[in-house]
Write a structure and sequence with these properties.
By secondary structure, the protein is mainly α. The chain has two domains: 3-214, TorD-like (Orthogonal Bundle), CATH 1.10.3480; 221-283, no CATH class. The chain has helices at 29-43, 49-71, 76-87, 92-103, 116-119, 125-137, 152-164, 172-178, 180-194, 199-211, 221-233, 253-265, 277-291; strands spanning 14-15, 140-141, 240-242, 249-252. A two-stranded parallel ribbon has the order 1-2. A two-stranded antiparallel ribbon has the order 3-4. The protein is globular. The termini are far apart.
Length: 292
């Protein structure tokens, strides 16, 4: 499907404008998996123009059939659905309209910002964990991709990079379990609920099936809640505000920004947000003692 240089030796540090991958699928092992995830990453970018439509229609099903066959992943049903879904379209505009109606046009039926499926929002601890993972891997999103770092294409290309490289502090399995393992099945369900015959429904089912191979052993619900609470409280994830008085980290910068904006909208000062709740309480107590 795709036309680019091989991955080996490639400095993939600025992620996803138009994801490259080798044209040939005559490869094995980790490189095969890399190309599989890069191909899916590319397939979930907006299909702009006749060339993208032709590649999606003529090359993508064949490439995915070869890649999944080499990987030992049973995907005949998903690839058959992909062929049927794209066969009902006769021009590039139809595919672009389908993409827009599913992923771009409000109210968006199936967002491609995947932290929504994990945290229920785009500003939760999952996004902090992803940003920290990108930092550990030395990866930055390209300016060309005007979207958040939890976009499916950014995550899938990052996964491909990590499958081919040892990175201190983060590996492919750990990265997959931050968001992709939990989010991809929910994305597939959201697309199927809106447009079950869409080629994107087949692609999402294929992605969900493939990512299951990287899933960690299932934890109990209480263990998952405990892990999420730990992640939310971890000051190494995301950017945290340190108290001006005692110096301890006490809240994430984006939470402080949200509170400051809300106070400004109703004409209230926000200077107290520079200190942690303990130091605020201590200061208020001292003030009350002075005025008695």
């Amino acid at each position: 499907m795709l036309d680019a240089a091989p991955l080996a030796g490639r400095d993939v540090r600025h992620i996803t404008a138009d994801v490259p991958a080798p044209a040939s699928t005559d490869m094995s092992g980790a490189l095969n998996e890399q190309v599989f995830w890069l191909t899916l990453a590319n397939a979930f970018l907006p299909p702009k123009g006749e060339a993208a439509f032709a590649a999606f229609r003529d090359g993508l099903p064949l490439d995915l059939a070869e890649l999944t066959g080499e990987m030992g992943l049973a995907a005949d049903a998903e690839i058959a659905s992909l062929r049927m879904g794209i066969a009902r379209m006769s021009e590039a505009l139809e595919l672009l309209v389908e993409y827009s109606s599913l992923f771009l046009q409000p109210p968006v039926p199936a967002p491609l910002n995947l932290t929504r499926y994990v945290d229920g929002s785009v500003n939760g601890p999952c996004l902090d964990a992803l940003e920290n993972a990108y930092r550990l891997a030395g990866i930055a999103k390209r300016d060309d991709l005007r979207d958040l770092p939890d976009h499916i294409a950014v995550q899938l290309e990052t996964l491909a990079v990590l499958l081919g490289e040892e990175q201190p502090g983060i590996d492919a399995r750990a990265f997959a379990n931050l968001c992709l393992v939990g989010a991809l099945p929910r994305l597939a369900a959201a697309i199927a609920a809106e447009a079950p015959a869409s080629p994107y429904a087949a692609l999402a089912r294929l992605a969900a099936k493939a990512i299951a191979g990287l899933a960690e052993p299932t934890d109990s619900a209480s263990e998952r809640r405990h892990r999420r609470a730990q992640r939310r409280a971890d000051p190494t994830l995301g950017v945290w505000r340190s108290c001006d008085s005692c110096g301890r980290p006490f809240a994430r910068e984006k939470e402080i920004a949200i509170m400051a904006k809300a106070l400004a909208q109703v004409g209230l000062p926000a200077e107290h947000l520079a200190r942690c709740p303990d130091c605020r309480d201590a200061a208020q107590g001292f003030f009350r003692r002075q005025i008695k």
